[in-house]
Write a structure and sequence with these properties.
Elements (H helix, E strand, L loop, with lengths): L1 H10 L12 H14 L5 E7 L5 H6 L3 E8 L2 H10 L6 E5 L11 E7 L8 H14 E12 L1 H6 L6 H8 L4 E9 L6 E8 L6
Parallel strand pairs: 1-2, 1-4, 2-3, 4-5
Antiparallel strand pairs: 5-7, 6-7
Helix pairs in contact: 5-7
Protein name: Nodulation protein S
GO molecular function: S-adenosylmethionine-dependent methyltransferase activity
Function: SAM-utilizing methyltransferase involved in nod factor synthesis.
């Protein structure tokens, strides 16, 4: 995993890493992620897992009373923090998602293009269990990922279909979007889940 961190850190030195701002496919993906995130309107307390250079963070921030952003790469946090410096309601944490914890629960958790970096499905399950444990009763979790076939071709253990199946073991799927661009690599699934646990 250290090699993955170093690779991500190097890529974050580029002006627009992964073309998150300049690519129409990425802009469409982020717009759909935001739409799913805002299913219930304004958000009281949100968690974004994996901020990259802050492209989606910047879109989500105005809709949250409080937004906690977690990334394992310090440079990602620095880039996203600089990009969103006009807002003061944000909390920044450098942490591995398998180990991150918070005292409060979140009514929205967004985790996109992150879980396939984990070593195997056992680690993915650990991360998902951790996230679901921080999701408020009736809260929403928005997940996005490249599909299984692409992720495995890139050398990862699994992608969207596998993680969606794991999430459906504990959460209720309430929406799904298929985003596809011109490249074979631009093929992802977004899904929105609700925590069916009723508030006390």
């Amino acid at each position: 995993m250290d090699m993955t961190y170093r690779s991500l850190d190097r890529e974050l030195t580029a002006e627009d890493p992964w073309r998150l701002d300049g690519n129409p496919f990425e802009r469409k993906r982020h717009a759909e992620m935001l739409r799913l995130s805002l299913t219930r309107g304004a958000i009281k307390n949100a968690l974004e897992v994996g901020c990259a250079a802050g492209a989606f963070t910047e879109m989500l921030a105005p809709h949250c009373q409080r937004l906690t952003v977690v990334d394992v790469v310090p440079r990602a946090i620095s880039r996203a923090k600089e990009r969103t410096r006009q807002w003061s309601h944000m909390v920044w944490v450098v942490s591995d998602i398998q180990r991150f914890s918070a005292a409060e629960s979140f009514d929205l958790i967004v985790v996109a293009e992150v879980l396939y970096y984990l070593a195997d499905t056992v680690e993915m399950r650990t991360a998902i269990r951790n996230l679901v444990g921080m999701l408020a009763p009736e809260g929403l979790l928005v997940f996005g990922s490249a599909r299984d076939a692409n992720c495995r071709r890139w050398g990862h253990a699994a992608g969207a279909e596998t993680v969606i199946a794991i999430l459906k073991e504990t959460l209720i799927e309430v929406g799904r979007v298929h985003c596809q661009g011109e490249s074979v690599n631009e093929d992802c699934l977004l899904a929105c889940f609700r925590n069916s646990i009723q508030p006390n």
